[in-house]
Amino acid sequence: MRLRGKKNRVSLESQTDLVVLEPKKLKGKWHELFGNDNPIHIELGMGKGQFISRMSANHPHINYLGMDMFDELLRIGSRKARTLWKEEKNSDEVPNLFLVRGNVEHLEEMFEPGELERIYLNFSDPWPKSKHAKRRLTYHRFLSMYKNVLNERGEIHFKTDSLSLFEFSLNSFSDSQLQMKNISLDLHRNGLREDLVLTEYETKFSGQGMPIYRLEAVIGSEAIREHRSRVAEAMEKSKRRAPDEDAAEKDEPVTEASSEE
Ligand SMILES: C[S@@+](CC[C@H](N)C(=O)[O-])C[C@H]1O[C@@H](n2cnc3c(N)ncnc32)[C@H](O)[C@@H]1O
């Protein structure tokens, strides 16, 4: 990822309203930081922050965290979020977003069990060499951390341009006995999905005509129950349909190809 030079830097230390530099100190206190009990959704490896800034503006009743390891990305992300909120909402504050400097390796030192409700893994580094498989953010060791910090409504939403990472991840989710839904092998096949928020990498790769792979993994007990009842309902409905309707739609899955973010 190419980063800008050092000109016009605003120190991260001065941005305590938007930036968290020592996330381990907030373990168990994230809701206090936001000042409400709204669910917390996090993007792990947010890059320059396009996705998480847009999500915060679109969904004011969700608390968002964008995590990355690099100060320069946090700086770019904070500029982006402030500009978006100023231009679209005429607000000098970004009330439902914090950008966090941290390494996913230490996730369980930053969050109590059940403190998060959703994890976004967007275009995570694919680490194509098999000797680096353990670094992939969908490696089973990471999945087990995610399970621990997610609550009863917990889900992981994963998208990537890398077929090999997607294949690896399908196996990893399956080996970890995670229920998957809304799997897509070409998310924008009918043109860019207006209902989904695009990341920087997604804008670039889908602009080049590359397929984007996506899935959602259902983790929390309540999320699993809800998903199962939706599937049962859809199956029941399809049984009641007229035979000619059934024939026309027999190849379709019972759930949607993907859902809104
Ligand atoms: C390929 S970029 C994707 C950025 C953004 N999500 C997007 O879709 O445009 C991957 C990002 O993940 C970050 N990253 C990789 N490993 C990480 C880790 N262990 N902890 C935190 N961030 C990580 C990198 O610094 C980089 O910004």
Automatic annotation (TrEMBL):
EC number(s) on file: 2.1.1.33
SUPFAM superfamilies: S-adenosyl-L-methionine-dependent methyltransferases
GO cellular component: tRNA methyltransferase complex
HAMAP family on file: tRNA_methyltr_TrmB (MF_01057)
Chain residue ranges for the region called Disordered: 230-261
Keyword field: Methyltransferase, S-adenosyl-L-methionine, Transferase, tRNA processing
Uppermost EC category: transferase
Protein known as: tRNA (guanine-N(7)-)-methyltransferase
Family: Belongs to the class I-like SAM-binding methyltransferase superfamily. TrmB family.
PANTHER family: 3-DEOXY-D-MANNO-OCTULOSONIC-ACID TRANSFERASE/TRNA GUANINE-N 7 - -METHYLTRANSFERASE (PTHR23417), PENTACOTRIPEPTIDE-REPEAT REGION OF PRORP DOMAIN-CONTAINING PROTEIN (PTHR23417:SF14)
GO MF terms, alphabetically ordered: tRNA (guanine(46)-N7)-methyltransferase activity
Pathway noted in the entry: tRNA modification; N(7)-methylguanine-tRNA biosynthesis
Pfam families attached to this UniProt entry: Methyltransf_4
Residues reported in the UniProt entry to bind S-adenosyl-L-methionine: E43, D68, N103, D125
Keyword field contains tRNA processing: yes
InterPro entries, per database record: SAM-dependent_MTases_sf, tRNA_(Gua-N-7)_MeTrfase_Trmb, tRNA_methyltr_TrmB_bact
Species of origin: Cohnella thailandensis
Stretches with biased composition (Basic and acidic residues): 230-244
Binding site for substrate: K129, D161, T199, E200, Y201, E202
Catalytic activity: guanosine(46) in tRNA + S-adenosyl-L-methionine = N(7)-methylguanosine(46) in tRNA + S-adenosyl-L-homocysteine
UniProt keyword annotation of Chloroplast present: no
Protein origin, superkingdom: Bacteria
Function statement: Catalyzes the formation of N(7)-methylguanine at position 46 (m7G46) in tRNA.
